[in-house]
Amino acid sequence: MPVKTAKKAAAKKTAARRVATKAARPGKAVTGSPAPLSASERITQMIASLGDWRGERLAGIRKLIHEADPEVVEDWKWMGTPVWSHNGMYVLANPLKAKVKITFFHGARLPDPKKIFNAGLDGGKWRAIDLREGDKLDTTAFKALLRAAVDYNTTHSVPKSKGSRA
């Protein structure tokens, strides 16, 4: 086999491997492959892939968010973080090794009469709830925080001008 032909064959194999690797990555579009996953599909996929108490907890948190805010928009940010928005981002949830962390973007500005925030209490903006396996979540207080976060975003959102980019 001539040298030029061997080089072309090697280049084709390398290119084929790159395409196969990209196609194997969840949510990545490759020519001829299905469309990328939506944020909601990615969140569902993440929950299913956890296969332990963290997945169950994240599914429960997601359900409570949708109950408290039927107009919520799900998003997928920062290479793998479920985020929920309503007139701007207001809460995210991360399954970590030993806990599920629920972070409120404007948590320091939200009323927390039941004191369910237990992390980030010294910060000037964010507040979080760290839930470990077996921890109980006061769902009534959690939904009240979610509604307060939506109210905060609604009253503090800056309307976009016609010339601004989204």
From TrEMBL:
Compositional bias per record (Basic residues), positions renumbered to this chain: 1-20
Pfam families registered for this protein in UniProt: DUF1801
Domain YdhG-like: from-to ranges: 55-150
Region entry Disordered, spans: 1-36
Protein name as annotated: YdhG-like domain-containing protein
Lineage: superkingdom: Bacteria
